[in-house]
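Running co-folding for sodium ion.
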Amino acid sequence: TRRVRTRDLLAAKERGERWPMLTSYDQYTASIFDSAGVPVLLVGDSAANNVFGYDTTVPVTADELLPLVRAVVRATRHALVVGDLPFGSYEEGPTQALRTAVRFMKEGGCHAVKLEGGRRYVEQVAAITGAGIPVMAHVGFTPQREHTIGGYRVQGRGDAAEEVLADARAVAEAGAFAVVLEMVPGEVAKRVTAELEIPTVGIGAGPDTDAQVLVWQDMAGLRTGKAPRFVKRYADLAGALSQAARTFADEVRGGGFPAAEHTF
Ligand code: KIV
Ligand code: NA
Protein backbone atom coordinates (compact mmCIF):
# COMPACT_ATOMS: atom_id res chain seq x y z
CA THR A 1 0.00 0.00 0.00
CA ARG A 2 1.01 3.59 -0.59
CA ARG A 3 2.13 6.29 1.84
CA VAL A 4 -0.47 7.83 4.09
CA ARG A 5 -1.43 11.35 2.97
CA THR A 6 -2.83 14.22 4.96
CA ARG A 7 -6.12 13.83 3.08
CA ASP A 8 -6.39 10.26 4.40
CA LEU A 9 -6.32 11.69 7.91
CA LEU A 10 -9.04 14.21 7.08
CA ALA A 11 -11.11 11.39 5.53
CA ALA A 12 -10.62 9.29 8.68
CA LYS A 13 -12.06 12.12 10.75
CA GLU A 14 -15.07 12.34 8.43
CA ARG A 15 -15.63 8.61 8.92
CA GLY A 16 -15.21 8.93 12.68
CA GLU A 17 -12.12 6.67 12.72
CA ARG A 18 -9.47 7.33 15.36
CA TRP A 19 -5.79 6.85 14.55
CA PRO A 20 -2.56 6.44 16.52
CA MET A 21 0.67 8.42 16.22
CA LEU A 22 4.02 7.66 17.84
CA THR A 23 7.32 9.45 17.98
CA SER A 24 10.29 7.75 16.35
CA TYR A 25 13.89 8.83 16.04
CA ASP A 26 15.69 5.87 14.50
CA GLN A 27 15.62 3.11 11.95
CA TYR A 28 14.43 0.15 14.04
CA THR A 29 11.55 1.78 15.84
CA ALA A 30 10.46 3.47 12.60
CA SER A 31 10.28 0.23 10.66
CA ILE A 32 8.61 -1.67 13.54
CA PHE A 33 5.93 1.02 14.03
CA ASP A 34 5.44 1.33 10.26
CA SER A 35 4.90 -2.43 9.94
CA ALA A 36 2.61 -2.38 12.98
CA GLY A 37 0.32 -0.02 11.09
CA VAL A 38 0.92 3.25 12.89
CA PRO A 39 -0.02 5.70 10.12
CA VAL A 40 1.82 8.80 11.37
CA LEU A 41 5.30 8.99 12.92
CA LEU A 42 6.62 12.16 14.50
CA VAL A 43 10.33 12.85 14.71
CA GLY A 44 9.67 15.02 17.72
CA ASP A 45 11.94 17.66 19.18
CA SER A 46 11.37 15.44 22.24
CA ALA A 47 14.51 13.77 20.84
CA ALA A 48 16.11 16.48 22.96
CA ASN A 49 15.12 14.57 26.11
CA ASN A 50 14.70 11.07 24.76
CA VAL A 51 17.74 10.76 22.49
CA PHE A 52 20.22 13.50 23.33
CA GLY A 53 19.72 13.68 27.10
CA TYR A 54 18.91 17.38 27.46
CA ASP A 55 16.65 18.46 30.33
CA THR A 56 14.24 20.33 28.05
CA THR A 57 13.47 20.58 24.34
CA VAL A 58 14.92 24.09 24.19
CA PRO A 59 18.55 23.26 23.23
CA VAL A 60 17.99 20.81 20.36
CA THR A 61 18.77 22.13 16.86
CA ALA A 62 17.68 21.42 13.31
CA ASP A 63 21.18 20.10 12.62
CA GLU A 64 20.70 17.51 15.37
CA LEU A 65 17.15 16.54 14.33
CA LEU A 66 17.61 16.29 10.56
CA PRO A 67 19.70 13.07 10.57
CA LEU A 68 17.02 11.44 12.73
CA VAL A 69 14.30 12.58 10.31
CA ARG A 70 16.26 11.04 7.42
CA ALA A 71 16.66 7.74 9.29
CA VAL A 72 12.92 7.49 10.04
CA VAL A 73 11.93 8.35 6.46
CA ARG A 74 14.39 5.77 5.04
CA ALA A 75 13.02 3.05 7.33
CA THR A 76 9.31 3.54 6.54
CA ARG A 77 7.14 2.73 3.55
CA HIS A 78 3.61 3.60 4.69
CA ALA A 79 3.71 6.11 7.52
CA LEU A 80 3.44 9.83 6.98
CA VAL A 81 6.55 11.25 8.67
CA VAL A 82 6.27 14.59 10.43
CA GLY A 83 9.42 16.54 11.33
CA ASP A 84 9.19 18.77 14.40
CA LEU A 85 10.65 22.27 14.03
CA PRO A 86 12.83 22.95 17.09
CA PHE A 87 12.82 26.00 19.34
CA GLY A 88 14.53 28.95 17.68
CA SER A 89 13.96 27.78 14.11
CA TYR A 90 10.65 29.52 13.29
CA GLU A 91 9.74 32.16 15.89
CA GLU A 92 11.38 35.12 14.13
CA GLY A 93 8.78 35.19 11.40
CA PRO A 94 7.32 33.51 8.33
CA THR A 95 10.57 33.79 6.35
CA GLN A 96 12.62 31.97 8.97
CA ALA A 97 9.83 29.42 9.48
CA LEU A 98 9.55 28.66 5.76
CA ARG A 99 13.33 28.39 5.41
CA THR A 100 13.48 25.82 8.23
CA ALA A 101 10.47 23.91 6.92
CA VAL A 102 12.07 23.71 3.46
CA ARG A 103 15.25 22.30 5.05
CA PHE A 104 13.19 19.62 6.80
CA MET A 105 11.52 18.66 3.50
CA LYS A 106 14.66 18.73 1.34
CA GLU A 107 17.34 17.53 3.77
CA GLY A 108 15.10 15.48 6.06
CA GLY A 109 12.80 14.11 3.41
CA CYS A 110 9.76 14.22 5.69
CA HIS A 111 6.20 14.69 4.45
CA ALA A 112 5.02 17.40 6.83
CA VAL A 113 6.38 19.59 9.60
CA LYS A 114 5.09 20.50 13.04
CA LEU A 115 5.50 23.66 15.09
CA GLU A 116 4.29 24.76 18.51
CA GLY A 117 1.91 27.66 18.83
CA GLY A 118 -1.55 28.95 18.00
CA ARG A 119 -2.55 32.55 17.30
CA ARG A 120 1.04 33.69 17.86
CA TYR A 121 2.35 31.78 14.83
CA VAL A 122 -0.45 31.91 12.27
CA GLU A 123 1.79 33.79 9.83
CA GLN A 124 4.32 30.98 10.06
CA VAL A 125 1.65 28.31 9.48
CA ALA A 126 0.28 30.25 6.50
CA ALA A 127 3.71 30.78 4.92
CA ILE A 128 4.69 27.10 5.22
CA THR A 129 1.37 25.69 4.01
CA GLY A 130 1.35 28.34 1.26
CA ALA A 131 4.60 26.87 -0.04
CA GLY A 132 3.02 23.42 -0.29
CA ILE A 133 4.31 21.94 2.96
CA PRO A 134 1.68 20.41 5.25
CA VAL A 135 1.78 21.75 8.83
CA MET A 136 0.69 20.06 12.02
CA ALA A 137 0.21 22.68 14.75
CA HIS A 138 0.49 22.13 18.52
CA VAL A 139 -1.51 24.05 21.15
CA GLY A 140 -2.36 23.75 24.83
CA PHE A 141 0.84 22.94 26.74
CA THR A 142 3.80 23.62 24.45
CA PRO A 143 7.09 22.31 25.92
CA GLN A 144 9.27 24.83 24.07
CA ARG A 145 7.65 27.56 26.22
CA GLU A 146 8.04 25.73 29.52
CA HIS A 147 10.20 28.47 31.05
CA THR A 148 7.40 30.98 30.42
CA ILE A 149 4.57 28.63 31.34
CA GLY A 150 6.41 27.59 34.50
CA GLY A 151 6.80 23.86 34.02
CA TYR A 152 4.55 21.10 32.73
CA ARG A 153 1.09 22.46 33.50
CA VAL A 154 -2.39 21.69 32.20
CA GLN A 155 -3.58 24.52 29.92
CA GLY A 156 -7.13 25.64 29.22
CA ARG A 157 -8.73 25.11 32.64
CA GLY A 158 -11.79 27.25 33.37
CA ASP A 159 -11.94 30.49 31.39
CA ALA A 160 -8.64 29.63 29.67
CA ALA A 161 -10.56 27.06 27.61
CA GLU A 162 -11.40 29.90 25.22
CA GLU A 163 -7.68 30.54 24.67
CA VAL A 164 -7.11 26.94 23.58
CA LEU A 165 -10.14 27.11 21.27
CA ALA A 166 -8.97 30.37 19.75
CA ASP A 167 -5.48 28.95 19.17
CA ALA A 168 -6.83 25.80 17.53
CA ARG A 169 -9.23 27.77 15.32
CA ALA A 170 -6.44 30.13 14.27
CA VAL A 171 -4.07 27.41 13.08
CA ALA A 172 -6.89 25.57 11.29
CA GLU A 173 -7.82 28.80 9.47
CA ALA A 174 -4.15 29.36 8.60
CA GLY A 175 -4.11 25.99 6.83
CA ALA A 176 -2.82 23.41 9.33
CA PHE A 177 -3.87 19.84 8.43
CA ALA A 178 -3.98 18.69 12.07
CA VAL A 179 -3.40 20.06 15.54
CA VAL A 180 -1.85 18.47 18.62
CA LEU A 181 -3.66 19.26 21.88
CA GLU A 182 -1.28 18.69 24.78
CA MET A 183 -2.34 18.61 28.43
CA VAL A 184 -5.75 20.22 28.15
CA PRO A 185 -8.89 19.10 30.01
CA GLY A 186 -10.80 16.34 28.21
CA GLU A 187 -13.89 18.53 27.89
CA VAL A 188 -11.90 21.26 26.15
CA ALA A 189 -10.32 18.78 23.73
CA LYS A 190 -13.77 17.39 22.99
CA ARG A 191 -15.08 20.87 22.12
CA VAL A 192 -12.09 21.64 19.87
CA THR A 193 -12.45 18.27 18.14
CA ALA A 194 -16.16 18.78 17.52
CA GLU A 195 -15.65 22.29 16.18
CA LEU A 196 -12.67 21.80 13.86
CA GLU A 197 -12.76 20.02 10.51
CA ILE A 198 -9.08 19.07 10.81
CA PRO A 199 -8.07 16.16 13.05
CA THR A 200 -6.99 16.77 16.64
CA VAL A 201 -4.16 14.68 18.08
CA GLY A 202 -4.34 14.39 21.84
CA ILE A 203 -1.61 13.86 24.41
CA GLY A 204 -2.97 14.26 27.89
CA ALA A 205 -6.20 15.53 26.32
CA GLY A 206 -8.63 12.72 27.11
CA PRO A 207 -10.40 10.18 24.90
CA ASP A 208 -12.36 12.45 22.56
CA THR A 209 -9.68 13.64 20.15
CA ASP A 210 -9.43 12.20 16.61
CA ALA A 211 -5.96 10.76 17.23
CA GLN A 212 -3.64 9.99 20.14
CA VAL A 213 0.13 10.41 20.34
CA LEU A 214 2.69 9.20 22.86
CA VAL A 215 6.47 9.41 22.99
CA TRP A 216 7.52 5.87 22.09
CA GLN A 217 9.92 5.42 25.02
CA ASP A 218 7.01 6.23 27.35
CA MET A 219 4.60 3.95 25.46
CA ALA A 220 7.05 1.03 25.54
CA GLY A 221 8.40 1.55 29.05
CA LEU A 222 11.98 2.33 28.04
CA ARG A 223 11.87 5.49 30.12
CA THR A 224 11.57 4.58 33.78
CA GLY A 225 10.68 6.65 36.81
CA LYS A 226 7.59 8.72 37.39
CA ALA A 227 5.69 9.27 34.16
CA PRO A 228 3.06 11.93 33.56
CA ARG A 229 -0.55 10.90 34.25
CA PHE A 230 -1.35 10.65 30.54
CA VAL A 231 1.27 7.96 29.85
CA LYS A 232 0.31 4.31 29.56
CA ARG A 233 3.15 1.77 29.40
CA TYR A 234 2.46 -1.07 26.96
CA ALA A 235 5.72 -2.92 27.55
CA ASP A 236 8.70 -3.02 29.92
CA LEU A 237 11.58 -2.42 27.53
CA ALA A 238 13.76 -1.00 30.29
CA GLY A 239 13.34 -4.23 32.26
CA ALA A 240 13.92 -6.44 29.21
CA LEU A 241 17.08 -4.55 28.14
CA SER A 242 18.45 -4.44 31.64
CA GLN A 243 17.93 -8.19 31.99
CA ALA A 244 19.61 -8.85 28.63
CA ALA A 245 22.61 -6.67 29.52
CA ARG A 246 23.00 -8.36 32.92
CA THR A 247 22.82 -11.84 31.43
CA PHE A 248 25.35 -10.93 28.71
CA ALA A 249 27.69 -9.41 31.30
CA ASP A 250 27.38 -12.48 33.55
CA GLU A 251 28.04 -14.87 30.67
CA VAL A 252 31.10 -12.93 29.52
CA ARG A 253 32.50 -12.85 33.07
CA GLY A 254 31.68 -16.53 33.61
CA GLY A 255 32.95 -17.71 30.21
CA GLY A 256 29.48 -18.80 29.02
CA PHE A 257 29.65 -16.53 25.99
CA PRO A 258 30.76 -17.03 23.29
CA ALA A 259 30.08 -20.76 23.02
CA ALA A 260 31.16 -23.14 20.26
CA GLU A 261 28.25 -22.13 18.01
CA HIS A 262 29.36 -18.49 18.05
CA THR A 263 32.93 -19.34 17.14
CA PHE A 264 34.48 -19.69 13.66
O1 KIV B 1 8.12 16.25 20.38
C1 KIV B 1 7.15 15.50 20.64
O2 KIV B 1 7.31 14.33 21.01
C2 KIV B 1 5.81 16.05 20.50
C3 KIV B 1 4.63 15.15 20.75
C4 KIV B 1 4.56 14.63 22.12
C5 KIV B 1 3.37 15.75 20.28
O3 KIV B 1 5.69 17.19 20.15
NA1 NA C 1 7.57 18.42 20.03
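Result summary
The mean pLDDT is 98.
The beta strands are 19-23, 40-43, 80-84, 112-114, 135-140, 178-182, 200-203, 211-214.
Job closed.
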